[in-house]
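Researcher: Let's run the pair from yesterday's discussion. Sequence first, then C-alpha coordinates, for each.
Model: Starting with the first of the pair.
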Amino acid sequence: MGAARRQLMDPALQEGLLSPPALAVLGLCIGSFLNVVIHRLPLMLERGWKIDSAEMLGLDPAKTPGIGAPLTLAKPRSRCPSCGHAIAWHENIPLVGYLRLGGKCSACKTRISPRYPIIELGTALLFAAIGWRFGAQPTALLWCGFVAVLIALTGIDWDTTLLPDDLTLPLLWAGLVAAALGWTLPLSQALWGAVAGYLSLWSVYWAFKLATGKEGMGHGDFKLLAALGAWLGWQMILPIVLGASVLGAIVGLAMKASGALREGRYVPFGPFLAGSGVVVLFAGSARVLGWLGWA
Protein backbone atom coordinates (compact mmCIF):
# COMPACT_ATOMS: atom_id res chain seq x y z
CA MET A 1 0.00 0.00 0.00
CA GLY A 2 1.26 3.46 -0.87
CA ALA A 3 0.54 6.76 0.78
CA ALA A 4 -2.70 7.10 -1.12
CA ARG A 5 -5.36 4.47 -0.51
CA ARG A 6 -6.59 2.73 -3.64
CA GLN A 7 -10.31 2.50 -4.32
CA LEU A 8 -11.81 -0.96 -4.03
CA MET A 9 -13.56 -0.68 -7.41
CA ASP A 10 -13.94 1.64 -10.37
CA PRO A 11 -16.19 4.60 -9.40
CA ALA A 12 -18.44 4.11 -12.43
CA LEU A 13 -18.85 0.40 -11.65
CA GLN A 14 -19.58 1.18 -8.01
CA GLU A 15 -22.15 3.76 -9.05
CA GLY A 16 -23.92 1.15 -11.17
CA LEU A 17 -23.76 -1.78 -8.77
CA LEU A 18 -24.93 0.26 -5.79
CA SER A 19 -27.56 2.34 -7.58
CA PRO A 20 -31.19 2.13 -6.37
CA PRO A 21 -32.31 -0.06 -9.35
CA ALA A 22 -29.44 -2.51 -8.81
CA LEU A 23 -30.14 -2.68 -5.07
CA ALA A 24 -33.83 -3.24 -5.85
CA VAL A 25 -32.94 -6.33 -7.90
CA LEU A 26 -30.72 -7.51 -5.06
CA GLY A 27 -33.61 -6.88 -2.67
CA LEU A 28 -35.93 -9.11 -4.71
CA CYS A 29 -33.46 -11.98 -4.41
CA ILE A 30 -32.79 -11.38 -0.72
CA GLY A 31 -36.52 -11.08 -0.10
CA SER A 32 -37.05 -14.52 -1.62
CA PHE A 33 -34.43 -15.92 0.77
CA LEU A 34 -36.04 -14.11 3.70
CA ASN A 35 -39.28 -15.95 2.98
CA VAL A 36 -37.37 -19.19 3.50
CA VAL A 37 -35.80 -17.90 6.73
CA ILE A 38 -39.16 -16.76 8.12
CA HIS A 39 -40.75 -20.14 7.41
CA ARG A 40 -37.93 -22.53 8.23
CA LEU A 41 -35.88 -20.99 11.03
CA PRO A 42 -38.61 -21.46 13.69
CA LEU A 43 -39.06 -25.07 12.55
CA MET A 44 -35.32 -25.66 12.72
CA LEU A 45 -35.17 -24.19 16.23
CA GLU A 46 -38.14 -26.25 17.38
CA ARG A 47 -36.55 -29.43 16.04
CA GLY A 48 -33.30 -28.55 17.82
CA TRP A 49 -35.15 -28.03 21.11
CA LYS A 50 -36.86 -31.41 20.75
CA ILE A 51 -33.53 -33.12 20.09
CA ASP A 52 -31.98 -31.44 23.14
CA SER A 53 -34.95 -32.49 25.29
CA ALA A 54 -34.74 -36.09 24.08
CA GLU A 55 -31.03 -36.24 24.84
CA MET A 56 -31.58 -34.79 28.32
CA LEU A 57 -34.13 -37.55 28.97
CA GLY A 58 -31.67 -40.18 27.75
CA LEU A 59 -33.68 -40.93 24.61
CA ASP A 60 -32.38 -41.56 21.12
CA PRO A 61 -33.48 -38.57 18.99
CA ALA A 62 -33.51 -40.75 15.88
CA LYS A 63 -36.14 -42.97 17.48
CA THR A 64 -38.15 -40.25 19.22
CA PRO A 65 -41.46 -39.46 17.51
CA GLY A 66 -42.31 -35.88 16.59
CA ILE A 67 -38.78 -34.69 15.84
CA GLY A 68 -39.12 -34.97 12.09
CA ALA A 69 -36.61 -35.08 9.27
CA PRO A 70 -33.50 -32.86 9.16
CA LEU A 71 -34.22 -29.34 7.91
CA THR A 72 -31.92 -26.50 6.88
CA LEU A 73 -32.36 -23.23 5.02
CA ALA A 74 -31.12 -24.97 1.85
CA LYS A 75 -32.54 -28.49 2.09
CA PRO A 76 -34.95 -30.01 1.27
CA ARG A 77 -36.25 -28.17 -1.79
CA SER A 78 -39.26 -25.94 -1.34
CA ARG A 79 -42.56 -27.69 -1.96
CA CYS A 80 -46.23 -26.81 -2.12
CA PRO A 81 -47.62 -27.39 1.41
CA SER A 82 -50.88 -28.69 -0.05
CA CYS A 83 -49.80 -31.26 -2.64
CA GLY A 84 -46.03 -31.63 -2.09
CA HIS A 85 -45.16 -30.44 -5.60
CA ALA A 86 -41.44 -29.58 -5.79
CA ILE A 87 -41.18 -25.94 -6.86
CA ALA A 88 -39.19 -25.61 -10.09
CA TRP A 89 -36.46 -22.99 -10.44
CA HIS A 90 -38.49 -20.88 -12.88
CA GLU A 91 -41.44 -20.91 -10.46
CA ASN A 92 -39.15 -19.61 -7.74
CA ILE A 93 -37.95 -16.46 -9.56
CA PRO A 94 -38.70 -13.62 -7.14
CA LEU A 95 -42.01 -11.90 -7.88
CA VAL A 96 -41.96 -13.03 -11.53
CA GLY A 97 -42.66 -16.65 -10.62
CA TYR A 98 -45.67 -15.68 -8.51
CA LEU A 99 -47.10 -13.49 -11.28
CA ARG A 100 -46.54 -16.17 -13.96
CA LEU A 101 -48.36 -18.73 -11.83
CA GLY A 102 -51.22 -16.36 -11.13
CA GLY A 103 -50.64 -16.79 -7.41
CA LYS A 104 -51.47 -20.51 -7.53
CA CYS A 105 -49.54 -23.79 -7.33
CA SER A 106 -48.87 -25.09 -10.85
CA ALA A 107 -49.84 -28.63 -9.80
CA CYS A 108 -52.87 -28.42 -7.47
CA LYS A 109 -53.92 -24.79 -8.12
CA THR A 110 -54.01 -24.03 -4.39
CA ARG A 111 -53.62 -20.31 -3.77
CA ILE A 112 -50.13 -19.19 -2.73
CA SER A 113 -50.01 -16.73 0.15
CA PRO A 114 -49.57 -13.17 -1.15
CA ARG A 115 -47.14 -12.57 1.71
CA TYR A 116 -44.32 -14.13 -0.35
CA PRO A 117 -44.36 -11.51 -3.14
CA ILE A 118 -45.13 -8.76 -0.62
CA ILE A 119 -41.93 -9.52 1.31
CA GLU A 120 -39.93 -9.74 -1.92
CA LEU A 121 -41.30 -6.45 -3.22
CA GLY A 122 -41.02 -4.76 0.17
CA THR A 123 -37.38 -5.79 0.50
CA ALA A 124 -36.67 -4.51 -3.02
CA LEU A 125 -38.26 -1.14 -2.26
CA LEU A 126 -36.40 -0.76 1.03
CA PHE A 127 -33.06 -1.67 -0.61
CA ALA A 128 -33.71 0.88 -3.36
CA ALA A 129 -34.61 3.49 -0.74
CA ILE A 130 -31.34 2.77 1.06
CA GLY A 131 -29.49 3.33 -2.21
CA TRP A 132 -31.24 6.68 -2.57
CA ARG A 133 -30.68 7.60 1.11
CA PHE A 134 -26.98 6.71 1.37
CA GLY A 135 -25.82 6.93 -2.24
CA ALA A 136 -23.60 4.48 -4.10
CA GLN A 137 -21.39 3.75 -1.10
CA PRO A 138 -20.35 0.34 0.31
CA THR A 139 -22.06 1.27 3.59
CA ALA A 140 -25.38 1.04 1.70
CA LEU A 141 -24.89 -2.74 1.61
CA LEU A 142 -24.35 -2.68 5.37
CA TRP A 143 -27.69 -0.97 5.91
CA CYS A 144 -29.35 -3.35 3.45
CA GLY A 145 -28.19 -6.22 5.65
CA PHE A 146 -29.55 -4.42 8.72
CA VAL A 147 -32.97 -3.99 7.10
CA ALA A 148 -33.03 -7.57 5.80
CA VAL A 149 -32.57 -8.99 9.30
CA LEU A 150 -35.33 -6.72 10.60
CA ILE A 151 -37.69 -8.03 7.91
CA ALA A 152 -36.92 -11.63 8.88
CA LEU A 153 -37.43 -10.87 12.58
CA THR A 154 -40.72 -9.11 11.81
CA GLY A 155 -42.10 -12.10 9.91
CA ILE A 156 -40.97 -14.64 12.50
CA ASP A 157 -42.24 -12.65 15.48
CA TRP A 158 -45.60 -12.03 13.83
CA ASP A 159 -46.03 -15.75 13.11
CA THR A 160 -44.62 -17.23 16.30
CA THR A 161 -44.11 -14.41 18.88
CA LEU A 162 -40.46 -15.46 18.82
CA LEU A 163 -37.40 -13.27 18.20
CA PRO A 164 -34.61 -15.83 17.74
CA ASP A 165 -31.19 -15.22 19.27
CA ASP A 166 -29.83 -16.59 15.99
CA LEU A 167 -30.81 -13.25 14.42
CA THR A 168 -30.97 -10.67 17.23
CA LEU A 169 -27.53 -11.36 18.69
CA PRO A 170 -25.62 -11.32 15.35
CA LEU A 171 -27.47 -8.08 14.51
CA LEU A 172 -26.37 -6.60 17.84
CA TRP A 173 -22.72 -7.63 17.44
CA ALA A 174 -22.65 -6.52 13.80
CA GLY A 175 -23.81 -3.06 14.87
CA LEU A 176 -21.06 -2.79 17.47
CA VAL A 177 -18.38 -4.08 15.07
CA ALA A 178 -19.54 -1.72 12.31
CA ALA A 179 -19.28 1.19 14.74
CA ALA A 180 -15.84 0.06 15.93
CA LEU A 181 -14.65 0.02 12.31
CA GLY A 182 -15.96 3.55 11.74
CA TRP A 183 -18.68 2.54 9.28
CA THR A 184 -21.73 3.86 11.14
CA LEU A 185 -21.79 5.66 14.51
CA PRO A 186 -19.06 6.55 16.96
CA LEU A 187 -18.45 3.42 19.03
CA SER A 188 -19.47 5.12 22.29
CA GLN A 189 -22.92 5.95 20.86
CA ALA A 190 -23.38 2.40 19.60
CA LEU A 191 -22.26 0.85 22.88
CA TRP A 192 -24.51 3.01 25.03
CA GLY A 193 -27.30 2.52 22.51
CA ALA A 194 -27.07 -1.24 23.04
CA VAL A 195 -26.98 -0.82 26.82
CA ALA A 196 -29.88 1.65 26.87
CA GLY A 197 -31.94 -0.46 24.48
CA TYR A 198 -31.61 -3.60 26.55
CA LEU A 199 -32.01 -2.06 30.00
CA SER A 200 -35.00 0.12 29.06
CA LEU A 201 -37.27 -2.78 28.09
CA TRP A 202 -35.74 -5.05 30.74
CA SER A 203 -36.80 -2.48 33.36
CA VAL A 204 -40.32 -2.22 31.92
CA TYR A 205 -40.58 -6.02 31.86
CA TRP A 206 -39.70 -6.39 35.54
CA ALA A 207 -41.82 -3.42 36.66
CA PHE A 208 -44.84 -4.91 34.89
CA LYS A 209 -44.15 -8.42 36.23
CA LEU A 210 -43.75 -7.22 39.81
CA ALA A 211 -46.94 -5.16 39.55
CA THR A 212 -49.14 -7.77 37.84
CA GLY A 213 -47.40 -11.10 38.20
CA LYS A 214 -47.51 -11.48 34.41
CA GLU A 215 -44.94 -11.16 31.65
CA GLY A 216 -45.71 -8.23 29.38
CA MET A 217 -43.12 -9.00 26.69
CA GLY A 218 -40.48 -11.52 25.73
CA HIS A 219 -36.75 -11.29 26.30
CA GLY A 220 -36.21 -11.13 22.54
CA ASP A 221 -37.64 -7.61 22.56
CA PHE A 222 -34.81 -6.50 24.88
CA LYS A 223 -32.21 -7.90 22.49
CA LEU A 224 -33.86 -6.42 19.41
CA LEU A 225 -33.96 -2.94 20.93
CA ALA A 226 -30.34 -3.36 22.04
CA ALA A 227 -29.43 -4.19 18.43
CA LEU A 228 -31.33 -1.14 17.16
CA GLY A 229 -29.45 0.98 19.69
CA ALA A 230 -26.12 -0.42 18.48
CA TRP A 231 -26.97 0.62 14.91
CA LEU A 232 -28.83 3.89 15.50
CA GLY A 233 -27.44 5.23 18.78
CA TRP A 234 -28.68 5.76 22.33
CA GLN A 235 -30.52 8.97 21.45
CA MET A 236 -32.89 7.02 19.19
CA ILE A 237 -34.00 4.51 21.82
CA LEU A 238 -36.88 6.59 23.21
CA PRO A 239 -38.14 7.69 19.75
CA ILE A 240 -38.09 4.05 18.59
CA VAL A 241 -40.04 2.87 21.63
CA LEU A 242 -42.54 5.72 21.35
CA GLY A 243 -43.06 5.07 17.64
CA ALA A 244 -43.41 1.32 18.18
CA SER A 245 -45.91 1.85 21.01
CA VAL A 246 -48.10 4.11 18.87
CA LEU A 247 -47.98 1.76 15.87
CA GLY A 248 -48.64 -1.29 18.05
CA ALA A 249 -51.61 0.37 19.76
CA ILE A 250 -53.18 1.39 16.45
CA VAL A 251 -52.76 -2.05 14.88
CA GLY A 252 -53.88 -3.84 18.04
CA LEU A 253 -57.05 -1.76 18.34
CA ALA A 254 -57.81 -2.24 14.64
CA MET A 255 -57.37 -6.01 14.94
CA LYS A 256 -59.51 -6.07 18.07
CA ALA A 257 -62.28 -4.12 16.36
CA SER A 258 -62.20 -6.38 13.29
CA GLY A 259 -62.16 -9.59 15.33
CA ALA A 260 -58.72 -10.58 14.04
CA LEU A 261 -57.29 -10.53 17.57
CA ARG A 262 -58.76 -13.30 19.68
CA GLU A 263 -59.43 -12.89 23.40
CA GLY A 264 -56.34 -13.55 25.51
CA ARG A 265 -53.96 -13.11 22.57
CA TYR A 266 -51.64 -10.17 22.04
CA VAL A 267 -49.89 -8.45 19.18
CA PRO A 268 -46.09 -9.05 19.22
CA PHE A 269 -44.03 -5.92 19.85
CA GLY A 270 -41.02 -6.88 17.72
CA PRO A 271 -42.49 -5.94 14.31
CA PHE A 272 -43.28 -2.44 15.56
CA LEU A 273 -39.83 -1.98 17.08
CA ALA A 274 -38.35 -3.03 13.73
CA GLY A 275 -40.69 -0.75 11.77
CA SER A 276 -39.97 2.20 14.03
CA GLY A 277 -36.24 1.53 13.66
CA VAL A 278 -36.55 1.64 9.87
CA VAL A 279 -38.41 4.96 10.07
CA VAL A 280 -35.62 6.40 12.23
CA LEU A 281 -33.01 5.09 9.79
CA PHE A 282 -34.54 6.89 6.82
CA ALA A 283 -35.54 10.05 8.68
CA GLY A 284 -32.13 10.50 10.30
CA SER A 285 -31.41 11.22 13.95
CA ALA A 286 -31.34 15.02 13.53
CA ARG A 287 -34.81 15.10 11.97
CA VAL A 288 -36.26 12.70 14.56
CA LEU A 289 -34.90 14.80 17.41
CA GLY A 290 -36.32 17.87 15.70
CA TRP A 291 -39.78 16.24 15.53
CA LEU A 292 -39.64 15.68 19.28
CA GLY A 293 -38.31 19.18 19.96
CA TRP A 294 -35.03 17.84 21.37
CA ALA A 295 -32.71 19.23 18.73
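Model: Moving on to the second of the pair.
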Amino acid sequence: MSLLDGLRDSPGFLMSATFLLGLCLGSFLNVLILRLPQMMERAWKREARALLELPEVAETPLSLWRPASTCPSCAAVIKPWHNIPLLSWLRLRGRCANCAAPISIQYPLVELAAGLLSLTCAWRFGWSPQLAAALVFTWTLLALMVIDLHTQLLPDDLTLPLLWGGLLLSLGSVFVPAPASILGAAAGYLSLWSVFQLFRLATGKEGMGHGDFKLLAALGAWLGWQALPTVILLSSVVGAAVGIGLIVLRKHDRQVPIPFGPYLAAAGWLILIGGEALSGISLSALAG
Protein backbone atom coordinates (compact mmCIF):
# COMPACT_ATOMS: atom_id res chain seq x y z
CA MET A 1 0.00 0.00 0.00
CA SER A 2 1.38 3.40 -0.99
CA LEU A 3 1.35 6.48 1.21
CA LEU A 4 -1.39 8.06 -0.88
CA ASP A 5 -3.49 4.89 -0.64
CA GLY A 6 -3.09 4.96 3.14
CA LEU A 7 -4.15 8.58 3.36
CA ARG A 8 -7.15 7.94 1.15
CA ASP A 9 -8.32 4.69 2.74
CA SER A 10 -7.54 5.26 6.43
CA PRO A 11 -9.29 8.24 8.07
CA GLY A 12 -7.21 7.79 11.24
CA PHE A 13 -3.95 7.86 9.31
CA LEU A 14 -5.12 10.90 7.35
CA MET A 15 -6.04 12.81 10.50
CA SER A 16 -2.76 11.89 12.21
CA ALA A 17 -0.71 12.94 9.20
CA THR A 18 -2.67 16.16 8.83
CA PHE A 19 -2.16 16.96 12.50
CA LEU A 20 1.62 16.56 12.12
CA LEU A 21 1.57 18.65 8.94
CA GLY A 22 -0.34 21.34 10.83
CA LEU A 23 2.25 21.35 13.61
CA CYS A 24 5.03 21.87 11.08
CA LEU A 25 3.14 24.60 9.25
CA GLY A 26 2.41 26.19 12.61
CA SER A 27 6.16 26.64 13.09
CA PHE A 28 6.34 28.45 9.75
CA LEU A 29 3.26 30.52 10.65
CA ASN A 30 5.11 31.79 13.72
CA VAL A 31 7.83 33.12 11.43
CA LEU A 32 5.23 34.65 9.11
CA ILE A 33 3.38 36.27 12.03
CA LEU A 34 6.58 37.83 13.35
CA ARG A 35 8.29 38.90 10.15
CA LEU A 36 5.55 39.95 7.74
CA PRO A 37 4.61 43.07 9.76
CA GLN A 38 8.33 43.91 10.07
CA MET A 39 8.75 43.56 6.31
CA MET A 40 5.70 45.77 5.75
CA GLU A 41 7.09 48.45 8.07
CA ARG A 42 10.41 48.41 6.24
CA ALA A 43 8.63 48.82 2.91
CA TRP A 44 6.61 51.79 4.23
CA LYS A 45 9.77 53.48 5.50
CA ARG A 46 11.53 52.96 2.14
CA GLU A 47 8.53 54.48 0.35
CA ALA A 48 8.49 57.43 2.76
CA ARG A 49 12.22 58.06 2.30
CA ALA A 50 11.81 57.92 -1.47
CA LEU A 51 8.87 60.34 -1.34
CA LEU A 52 10.81 62.77 0.86
CA GLU A 53 13.94 62.28 -1.26
CA LEU A 54 15.94 61.14 1.76
CA PRO A 55 19.02 58.95 1.40
CA GLU A 56 18.57 55.22 1.61
CA VAL A 57 19.47 53.46 4.85
CA ALA A 58 21.43 50.21 4.85
CA GLU A 59 19.34 47.36 6.22
CA THR A 60 20.00 43.75 7.08
CA PRO A 61 18.13 41.61 4.53
CA LEU A 62 14.88 40.27 5.95
CA SER A 63 12.50 37.73 4.42
CA LEU A 64 10.43 34.77 5.53
CA TRP A 65 13.43 32.54 4.82
CA ARG A 66 16.43 34.60 5.90
CA PRO A 67 18.04 35.21 8.32
CA ALA A 68 17.75 32.09 10.45
CA SER A 69 15.50 32.27 13.50
CA THR A 70 17.22 33.61 16.62
CA CYS A 71 16.44 34.08 20.28
CA PRO A 72 15.01 37.61 20.77
CA SER A 73 16.96 37.96 24.04
CA CYS A 74 20.49 36.77 23.22
CA ALA A 75 20.33 36.60 19.37
CA ALA A 76 21.64 33.02 19.38
CA VAL A 77 20.65 31.08 16.26
CA ILE A 78 18.02 28.48 17.10
CA LYS A 79 19.35 25.03 16.25
CA PRO A 80 17.11 22.68 14.24
CA TRP A 81 16.69 20.25 17.15
CA HIS A 82 15.54 23.16 19.31
CA ASN A 83 12.93 24.09 16.73
CA ILE A 84 10.82 20.92 16.63
CA PRO A 85 7.18 22.05 16.76
CA LEU A 86 5.66 21.94 20.24
CA LEU A 87 8.07 19.26 21.54
CA SER A 88 11.13 21.55 21.70
CA TRP A 89 9.24 24.18 23.71
CA LEU A 90 8.07 21.52 26.18
CA ARG A 91 11.50 19.91 26.44
CA LEU A 92 13.18 23.27 27.06
CA ARG A 93 10.41 24.21 29.50
CA GLY A 94 9.67 27.36 27.57
CA ARG A 95 13.18 28.80 27.80
CA CYS A 96 16.02 29.53 25.39
CA ALA A 97 18.60 26.74 25.31
CA ASN A 98 21.42 29.32 25.24
CA CYS A 99 20.44 32.05 27.73
CA ALA A 100 17.42 30.52 29.53
CA ALA A 101 15.28 33.57 28.72
CA PRO A 102 11.54 32.81 28.58
CA ILE A 103 10.13 31.93 25.16
CA SER A 104 6.66 33.29 24.45
CA ILE A 105 3.90 30.73 24.84
CA GLN A 106 2.49 32.07 21.57
CA TYR A 107 4.86 29.83 19.62
CA PRO A 108 3.62 26.45 20.91
CA LEU A 109 0.02 27.69 21.00
CA VAL A 110 0.10 28.65 17.31
CA GLU A 111 1.69 25.29 16.45
CA LEU A 112 -0.86 23.36 18.49
CA ALA A 113 -3.75 25.39 17.06
CA ALA A 114 -2.52 24.77 13.51
CA GLY A 115 -2.29 21.04 14.24
CA LEU A 116 -5.74 20.74 15.84
CA LEU A 117 -7.47 22.92 13.25
CA SER A 118 -5.84 20.92 10.46
CA LEU A 119 -6.97 17.66 12.07
CA THR A 120 -10.51 19.04 12.24
CA CYS A 121 -10.39 19.82 8.51
CA ALA A 122 -9.30 16.23 7.79
CA TRP A 123 -12.16 14.90 9.93
CA ARG A 124 -14.66 17.16 8.16
CA PHE A 125 -13.61 16.77 4.53
CA GLY A 126 -11.65 13.50 4.36
CA TRP A 127 -9.32 12.80 1.46
CA SER A 128 -10.63 15.31 -1.06
CA PRO A 129 -9.82 18.54 -2.93
CA GLN A 130 -11.87 20.32 -0.27
CA LEU A 131 -9.36 19.24 2.37
CA ALA A 132 -6.39 20.77 0.54
CA ALA A 133 -8.28 24.04 0.07
CA ALA A 134 -9.57 24.05 3.65
CA LEU A 135 -6.04 23.66 5.02
CA VAL A 136 -4.79 26.70 3.10
CA PHE A 137 -7.88 28.62 4.26
CA THR A 138 -7.27 27.57 7.87
CA TRP A 139 -3.57 28.39 7.99
CA THR A 140 -4.10 31.79 6.36
CA LEU A 141 -6.88 32.73 8.77
CA LEU A 142 -4.80 31.64 11.76
CA ALA A 143 -1.91 33.85 10.67
CA LEU A 144 -4.27 36.78 10.08
CA MET A 145 -5.86 36.36 13.50
CA VAL A 146 -2.59 36.50 15.41
CA ILE A 147 -1.12 39.32 13.31
CA ASP A 148 -4.25 41.41 13.82
CA LEU A 149 -4.24 40.76 17.57
CA HIS A 150 -0.64 41.97 17.83
CA THR A 151 -0.53 44.80 15.30
CA GLN A 152 -4.12 45.59 14.25
CA LEU A 153 -3.04 44.88 10.68
CA LEU A 154 -4.56 42.50 8.14
CA PRO A 155 -1.85 42.35 5.45
CA ASP A 156 -2.88 42.49 1.80
CA ASP A 157 -0.24 39.82 1.19
CA LEU A 158 -2.60 37.40 2.95
CA THR A 159 -6.13 38.76 2.46
CA LEU A 160 -5.90 39.33 -1.30
CA PRO A 161 -4.53 35.85 -2.20
CA LEU A 162 -7.24 34.41 0.06
CA LEU A 163 -9.85 36.40 -1.86
CA TRP A 164 -8.58 35.37 -5.29
CA GLY A 165 -8.19 31.77 -4.14
CA GLY A 166 -11.85 31.62 -3.11
CA LEU A 167 -12.97 33.07 -6.43
CA LEU A 168 -10.84 30.61 -8.41
CA LEU A 169 -12.07 27.63 -6.39
CA SER A 170 -15.65 28.64 -7.16
CA LEU A 171 -15.00 27.96 -10.86
CA GLY A 172 -14.99 24.27 -9.89
CA SER A 173 -17.67 24.72 -7.20
CA VAL A 174 -15.24 23.33 -4.61
CA PHE A 175 -17.25 24.96 -1.81
CA VAL A 176 -19.75 27.25 -3.52
CA PRO A 177 -20.57 27.97 -7.18
CA ALA A 178 -19.13 31.00 -8.94
CA PRO A 179 -22.21 33.27 -8.76
CA ALA A 180 -22.47 32.85 -4.98
CA SER A 181 -18.73 33.42 -4.60
CA ILE A 182 -18.62 36.56 -6.73
CA LEU A 183 -21.66 38.03 -5.00
CA GLY A 184 -20.19 37.04 -1.64
CA ALA A 185 -16.91 38.84 -2.36
CA ALA A 186 -18.70 42.01 -3.51
CA ALA A 187 -21.26 41.97 -0.70
CA GLY A 188 -18.64 41.21 1.92
CA TYR A 189 -16.51 44.18 0.96
CA LEU A 190 -19.34 46.63 0.40
CA SER A 191 -21.20 45.77 3.60
CA LEU A 192 -18.35 46.72 5.94
CA TRP A 193 -17.26 49.56 3.67
CA SER A 194 -20.78 51.03 4.00
CA VAL A 195 -20.70 50.69 7.79
CA PHE A 196 -17.27 52.34 7.83
CA GLN A 197 -18.49 55.30 5.77
CA LEU A 198 -21.68 55.80 7.80
CA PHE A 199 -19.75 55.63 11.08
CA ARG A 200 -17.22 58.16 9.82
CA LEU A 201 -19.98 60.54 8.71
CA ALA A 202 -21.74 60.22 12.06
CA THR A 203 -18.73 60.47 14.35
CA GLY A 204 -15.84 61.82 12.30
CA LYS A 205 -13.83 58.74 13.30
CA GLU A 206 -12.82 55.56 11.53
CA GLY A 207 -14.50 52.59 13.19
CA MET A 208 -12.48 49.84 11.50
CA GLY A 209 -9.58 49.25 9.15
CA HIS A 210 -9.78 48.58 5.43
CA GLY A 211 -8.29 45.14 6.00
CA ASP A 212 -11.59 44.07 7.58
CA PHE A 213 -13.40 44.85 4.30
CA LYS A 214 -10.97 42.67 2.37
CA LEU A 215 -11.12 39.82 4.86
CA LEU A 216 -14.92 39.70 4.76
CA ALA A 217 -14.76 39.84 0.96
CA ALA A 218 -12.43 36.83 1.04
CA LEU A 219 -14.79 34.97 3.37
CA GLY A 220 -17.67 35.77 1.03
CA ALA A 221 -15.68 34.37 -1.90
CA TRP A 222 -15.06 31.09 -0.05
CA LEU A 223 -18.42 30.68 1.68
CA GLY A 224 -20.87 32.46 -0.63
CA TRP A 225 -23.08 35.45 0.01
CA GLN A 226 -25.58 33.33 1.95
CA ALA A 227 -23.09 32.85 4.80
CA LEU A 228 -22.27 36.54 5.26
CA PRO A 229 -25.11 37.44 7.67
CA THR A 230 -24.07 34.64 9.99
CA VAL A 231 -20.38 35.59 9.75
CA ILE A 232 -21.14 39.20 10.64
CA LEU A 233 -23.56 38.24 13.41
CA LEU A 234 -21.29 35.68 15.06
CA SER A 235 -18.20 37.88 14.87
CA SER A 236 -20.07 40.96 16.14
CA VAL A 237 -21.68 39.18 19.08
CA VAL A 238 -18.46 37.49 20.19
CA GLY A 239 -16.35 40.61 19.55
CA ALA A 240 -18.75 42.81 21.53
CA ALA A 241 -18.87 40.34 24.42
CA VAL A 242 -15.08 40.09 24.58
CA GLY A 243 -14.62 43.84 24.28
CA ILE A 244 -17.16 44.64 27.01
CA GLY A 245 -15.64 41.98 29.23
CA LEU A 246 -12.14 43.41 28.82
CA ILE A 247 -13.34 46.93 29.57
CA VAL A 248 -15.35 45.84 32.63
CA LEU A 249 -12.36 43.91 33.96
CA ARG A 250 -10.17 46.93 33.16
CA LYS A 251 -7.92 44.86 30.96
CA HIS A 252 -8.40 47.20 28.01
CA ASP A 253 -8.67 50.98 27.61
CA ARG A 254 -11.96 51.80 25.91
CA GLN A 255 -10.16 54.42 23.80
CA VAL A 256 -7.92 51.73 22.26
CA PRO A 257 -9.57 49.97 19.29
CA ILE A 258 -10.16 46.23 19.49
CA PRO A 259 -9.24 44.29 16.32
CA PHE A 260 -12.26 42.82 14.53
CA GLY A 261 -10.33 40.55 12.16
CA PRO A 262 -9.87 37.63 14.62
CA TYR A 263 -13.63 37.38 15.16
CA LEU A 264 -14.37 37.51 11.43
CA ALA A 265 -11.75 34.83 10.80
CA ALA A 266 -13.03 32.57 13.58
CA ALA A 267 -16.64 32.90 12.40
CA GLY A 268 -15.64 32.16 8.80
CA TRP A 269 -13.69 29.04 9.79
CA LEU A 270 -16.55 27.73 11.92
CA ILE A 271 -18.96 28.16 9.04
CA LEU A 272 -16.62 26.37 6.63
CA ILE A 273 -16.48 23.41 9.04
CA GLY A 274 -20.11 23.58 10.14
CA GLY A 275 -21.48 23.87 6.62
CA GLU A 276 -25.14 24.57 6.00
CA ALA A 277 -26.09 23.73 9.57
CA LEU A 278 -24.21 26.79 10.80
CA SER A 279 -24.40 29.14 7.83
CA GLY A 280 -28.19 28.73 7.78
CA ILE A 281 -28.62 30.15 11.27
CA SER A 282 -30.85 33.20 10.99
CA LEU A 283 -30.78 36.38 12.99
CA SER A 284 -34.09 35.54 14.66
CA ALA A 285 -32.83 32.09 15.66
CA LEU A 286 -29.73 33.50 17.34
CA ALA A 287 -31.66 36.31 18.98
CA GLY A 288 -34.10 33.79 20.43
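Researcher: Give me one sentence on the second I can quote.
Model: The chain has twelve helices and no strands.
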